[in-house]
Every structure is written in C-alpha cells, then in structure tokens.
Amino acid sequence: MSEPKAPIPAPGDTYKGWLFKWTNYIKGYQRRWFVLSNGLLSYYRTQAEMGHTCRGTINLATANIAVEDSCNFVISNGGTQTYHLKASSEVERQRWITALELAKAKAFRMQAESDDSGDESSPPAAGQGGGSRNSEVQSTLRTLGSKVEDLSTCNDLIAKHGSALQRSLSELEGVRLEGQTSEKIRQVTERATLFRITSNAMINACRDFLSLAQAHSKRWQKALQAEREQRVRLEETLEQLAKQHNHLERAFRGATVLPPSQSNPAIDNKGSAPVKGDASDEDDENEFFDACEDVQEFITVPADPKYHRSGSNVSGISSEMGMDDGTTSLDEQSVASNPESPQSQEVVPMRKRRSRIPDKPNYSLNLWSIMKNCIGKELSKIPMPVNFNEPLSMLQRLSEDLEYYELLDRGAKCHNSLEQMCYVAAFTVSSYSTTVHRTGKPFNPLLGETFELDRAQESGYRSLCEQVSHHPPAAAHHAISERGWTLRQEIALASKFRGKYLSIMPLGSIHCIFEKSSNHYSWKKVTTTVHNIIVGKLWIDQSGEIDIVNHKTGDRCHLKFAPYSYFSRDVARKVTGVVTDKDGKAHFVLSGTWDEKMEYSRVMQSTRGGENGAEGRQKTVYQTLKAKELWKKTPLPDGAENMYYFSTLALTLNEPEEGVAPTDSRRRPDQRMMEQGRWEEANAEKQRLEEKQRTVRREREREANRSASPSEEGKEPAADAAEEVEIASEPSETTYKSGHQDNYKAMWFERRVDPATGEPTHIYTGGYWEAKDQGSWDSCPDIF
C-alpha cells in the first residue's frame, strides 16, 4: 500500500501518519497510527481509536532520537519507553525525523517556560500567530535572565576568592624572600587584580543588558496581555454567535418543512432527497462525533464536512427522520400527547407504593457442600436453599423487562420505522440493566403460578405472566399498553452449572407490535453468565448477539453484547449495533453499555474497507452525525445494596395487593417468608411446595396414562419423585419447540403457531382482567 505524500511539517504543526512499530519477536513490526502533537508522540492501532484508546505516549522534551539506517529510527526517553520504528521509505523517515526534531525543540522550550516560577500565565498554544512569537520572546528573555543570575553568582564567588587570594599574596609580600620570588608574586597579584576588574566589567555589562531587556519585556507583556484579553472577548462573541446561529438554523429547519402537497417533487420521488448534506451549519465539534468503535464489526468516524455545507435537503432529512430533532422532539411529543397529563384528564390519586423491603440477613452457608454434587445438572433440578435466592420469582423478574416502558411509548409515536427500531433496540438492552448486581437466583415458579403487574393508572400498561410448563421450565408473558404497543414473549431457560460459572441460555422469542403502524418486531435474548460460583465475588456478564427483525418492513438491527475480558482495553459491558433497512443499507449506529446507557447516531455514508487492524480484515466504515441519547439507567434507590440491589420497580413487585389471583407470586408463602428474613421457615416451606407439585404432577400423569391406555391403569408412571435432583439433558431449542411434557393446559394462554415467525408459542387468550374485575377465581388451581 503506497503512502500519501505528506508535506514537510512546519514548526507547531500536528503530524500524523502510519509507521511500523516493533512489538516482539513473534509478531515483529506492526503497522500503527502515530500522532505528533504538543511535544507528545502517541500511537494507536487504527485511526478510529484516536477518540478513546491510546496505546502509548512518549514525551519528546526528554527523548533521544537516533537514526539506525535508511528507514529505521529509535526514540527513547532514557527510561522504560523505547520505540523502534520503521518508515515506508527514506523520504518518509526524513519527514518524521524533521517533525520530531522540531517538536522536541519546541517541547524543550515549553518545559523551560513551565519551570519558571515567575510565569503566572500559561503561554498560548503553538500555531497562533503573534501569540506564538510573543511567547518565544518571553522565553528568550527569561532564559537570558537566568543566565545573568548564574553569572552574578559566579561573580560573587570570584570576588570572594579573589579577595582571599589578594590577602594571601599581600601577606607573602611582607615576607623577605629573594628578588625573583617577589617579582613573581607581584605578577600574580597584578593578574588577579586584572581578573577581578574584568569580571566586574562583564557583570556590569550583563546587568545593563538585563535592565534594557526587562524594560522592553514590561512593554511586551502589556501588549501580550491586551492581545489575550481581546482573544477571550472574541471567543465569547463567537460562542454567542454560534448559539444564535444554531437557534436560527433549527427555527429555519422547522419553518421550511413543507406539507406533502407542496414539497419538492425530487424529494417526494423516493421519500427523501439524495443525502449530500445536513441542514445544520454547526461546527464539527457540536454536530459530529467519533463514535465508539466495534473492534469485531465495523468502524465509525465523524461524517465528512460536506454534509453540513448545504441546506438544500432540509425537508428531505426531516421527512426521513419523522421529526425535527431526534429525541428532543419525541420527548415534547410524548408530553403533549400523554393521556395522563394534567391537561388531558383529571388528576387521579396515585397509589403510593413501597420504597423499601427488610434488609437482607447475613447468613453464612457452605456453598461447595451443596454444589459439588450438582456439576453438569440442569439448574431447575438442583435443590437450592433460599440462601441463594432473592425474594422474587422468575415471573416477576420477567416483568422487570418493563422497567423502561417509556422507550416503547416513544417508539409508538415514531413515524419512521427505522427510528422506531432504535427505540426497540434500546428497550431490548435496557432489560439487562437491572441484572448487573443481581446475583441472587429468582424462585422457580410453580406450574400454573401467575403474576400480574397492573400499572394502567401510573404508566398506561398491564402485564400478565404465567408458568405454562415445568419440563422444560417456560413462562408466557403478555403486556398491553393504552399508548399503542403490545409486548409478548415465551421464555424457557436452559441452564448449566460448570463448576466455576453458571450459564443461562434463554430460549424463545420476544415480540413487540405497535398498533398504529402495525410494525411487528421480534428478537431473542442473549446468554447470561454468573462467574465465580465457588471462589471469589459473584459477578454477571451478558454476551452474544441479538437480531431484531421488523416483519412488516424487513428492517433489521444487529446488536452485539461484547463478553468481558481481562485483557481487553475496551469499555466493559459494551453493546454496539447497526440498524439497516430491507436492502441492507445502514441508517443508524447504536453504541453504549447494557448497564448504563445507549446512544444512536445517524449514518450519513458507509464505505467498505478502510484501515482494519492487525488481522487485515475489511470492515465497514460509517460516517455518523453526533450521537443522541436513547436511554439512560435510573440510579438504584438508597440502600439498594442491603435490599438485593432491587430497582425502584423491583421493590414493588412483591408488595401485597388485594384482588390478585390465588396463583399470584405475591401469595407464595416461601417467597414471602424469605423477604421477611425468616429463611429457615422459607426453606421448609419451599420443600413442602416442591413436594406438593411433584405429587400433583404424578397424579396428572396417571390420568393421562389412564386415558391413553386403560389396560395400564395400575402401572406406575416413570419415577419423578426426585425432580429436584434428577439428572436430565439440557433443554435445547429443538426440544423446546417440540412441545412441553407436563400435560398441562395453561389458564390464560394457549399454545399456537406464531404467524410472524412460524414458531409454536403461548399467546394470551384473554379473560384474566375480566375475572379480576368480577373476583371470579374458581377455575384457578390450588398450587400454594
């Protein structure tokens, strides 16, 4: 690959380019991106890393630069940092050597300035015209002053030693010696006297020069201070003008969006004009950003400046986005159209929900004594005491996916399906944010157990979960909002204990349907891993990939949850994604972390290739606009570390409520006892419930066998009494889809084939909320 011809660097310029750096004897020289700026030489693996990951930096002020041969040279600071570098040609090497020598000289001068205690203000940066020249003059004057002070010190010493010498010589003159010795002494005295006179003359001349220089220095300092004050005033004025320009630009953008009947035919032809520029003329710092790089997938860089030079396609971009300015417009729209706002209806007193639960007791337990016989077994078949649980069931944990339901509310108001996809993706990621510190295992729901989450008054949605199968464990969930969206899912957990860690693989799909647009989205969950099961502090990681599909439009979003690595310099818990249309064209890039926040940035242009790291693979380079925040995690309540790290919503899930079904998780006695700190009683109650469930299952199997084969009526079914210690194969996607083995018919859900995905799943059949209104729970089984 040929290198572009770079101009010979001028003093103060930032110099960038590719060099080969020696790494080790295995990899040899590796290509790295080097940046020389402000007396510092830094290097990165790729250009995209400049925004967040620097691999190394060396200060040139104290560095030694040595040339080895026609292309190689070495930079060392005399300590632990030594860079063995190689340029692509001798000419390129000479350009780098010139730039490094100039930068080293400048860095040395700047270091001398910073070491001077008399300098009360920092010198302006290089490359700033007159300010740079004044800085150099000030540096020269301070250097001369320092030298004169050194000479003055030397003069004092000379005077001191000269006087002593004269006194000694005078004493020698008083001694009667031969004439030749007296003559020599007189010569030495004359020479010492001349030396003193000469030294005094030199010092006087230096003092005169210093006085003259100081007189001029005061005048130059006043002029420099005036220039600095003027520059500050100009910067403040420029900032105000930029803000005014931005405000006018936004106002102009909103005023020039024409109705469909009056819009430009060229724009209406395909929905939007060819993208060559953005409506905004803001500077690069305010409008563009360097997005986080996904090392494995793609690279994002700031969009080309040409995208903010032209305002000819304002209405085109606005129509494609479906809004004027990203999330701000969505927030305003949400407030304006929120049916619960004071302007739209009368204020109804909200129920005050609890904000605390009893603190978690500190009970010690030997984990290994329980787990050593369980390696390789399915998690749901291990007899786990409540010491490892949290006082919530898996149904309640599933309902916590609605913690950030506002994202779906905003998505329901989007007119553009690609923008709506961004909110669905953010909602998908947000469901994992509550798990970062939640190392406790939720209670396995009993077959037929339900959990309702009625937040119609506060948040506009209602949610219902039911445990529809026990072998394999599977729960169905249905939530509907009066703000135009429905969420349904059926999740079965395949889990394995591997000794050092526990892997939980969710099976099944999640569906989200928006009523207004009829957009139907579906996706699957990633793998959850609990580390340090035996030794060390427990911690949780999410890893894998998610493909969100819009079955109506064909739009897709590919999300990647990067697994944690001790050796990675990237941000922990990182999530990246790309939103594409049915043709595979990228429109948005998503970035963030699953425990903190997610942002999205609009793709202006994408190219295949680019500088692609050590493995030499081509990656897609996306030019993106400035990122906008999609979602940010709400801080945990005070004292959450003593309350199982529950969020504000999680604290209310097990709060007793009147009118719920007899099968609701809130009525589960062992879970309630654990929440109250009565763990020994909870363990005993848990064993009673599990034994009761095994008895019911055996009876159900007998009935099924009796109906299928009357001749085998007296024959016992397969042994199932050891359900909690039974060794069984791990549930897979195939066994999950093939059907459940419990011969149980769910109360509120029915197993059907999903029309969008073709997969069998449990879909809500209705009737629960009507039964609650009527208080009719006669058909509910007695499971507690």
Automatic annotation (TrEMBL):
<feature type="compositionally biased region" description="Polar residues">
    <location>
        <begin position="326"/>
        <end position="346"/>
    </location>
</feature>
<feature type="domain" description="PH">
    <location>
        <begin position="12"/>
        <end position="105"/>
    </location>
</feature>
<keyword id="KW-0445">Lipid transport</keyword>
<dbReference type="GO" id="GO:0006869">
    <property type="term" value="P:lipid transport"/>
</dbReference>
<dbReference type="GO" id="GO:0005829">
    <property type="term" value="C:cytosol"/>
</dbReference>
<keyword id="KW-0597">Phosphoprotein</keyword>
<feature type="compositionally biased region" description="Basic and acidic residues">
    <location>
        <begin position="664"/>
        <end position="705"/>
    </location>
</feature>
<protein>
    <recommendedName>
        <fullName>Oxysterol-binding protein</fullName>
    </recommendedName>
</protein>
<dbReference type="InterPro" id="IPR000648">
    <property type="entry name" value="Oxysterol-bd"/>
</dbReference>
<dbReference type="Pfam" id="PF01237">
    <property type="entry name" value="Oxysterol_BP"/>
</dbReference>
<feature type="region of interest" description="Disordered">
    <location>
        <begin position="257"/>
        <end position="284"/>
    </location>
</feature>
<feature type="region of interest" description="Disordered">
    <location>
        <begin position="304"/>
        <end position="356"/>
    </location>
</feature>
<comment type="similarity">
    <text>Belongs to the OSBP family.</text>
</comment>
<dbReference type="Pfam" id="PF00169">
    <property type="entry name" value="PH"/>
</dbReference>
<keyword id="KW-0472">Membrane</keyword>
<keyword id="KW-0446">Lipid-binding</keyword>
<dbReference type="GO" id="GO:0005886">
    <property type="term" value="C:plasma membrane"/>
</dbReference>
<feature type="region of interest" description="Disordered">
    <location>
        <begin position="656"/>
        <end position="741"/>
    </location>
</feature>
<dbReference type="InterPro" id="IPR018494">
    <property type="entry name" value="Oxysterol-bd_CS"/>
</dbReference>
<dbReference type="InterPro" id="IPR037239">
    <property type="entry name" value="OSBP_sf"/>
</dbReference>
<dbReference type="InterPro" id="IPR001849">
    <property type="entry name" value="PH_domain"/>
</dbReference>
<feature type="coiled-coil region">
    <location>
        <begin position="217"/>
        <end position="251"/>
    </location>
</feature>
<keyword id="KW-0813">Transport</keyword>
<dbReference type="GO" id="GO:0032934">
    <property type="term" value="F:sterol binding"/>
</dbReference>
<feature type="region of interest" description="Disordered">
    <location>
        <begin position="111"/>
        <end position="142"/>
    </location>
</feature>
<dbReference type="GO" id="GO:0097038">
    <property type="term" value="C:perinuclear endoplasmic reticulum"/>
</dbReference>
<keyword id="KW-0175">Coiled coil</keyword>
<dbReference type="InterPro" id="IPR011993">
    <property type="entry name" value="PH-like_dom_sf"/>
</dbReference>
<feature type="compositionally biased region" description="Polar residues">
    <location>
        <begin position="133"/>
        <end position="142"/>
    </location>
</feature>
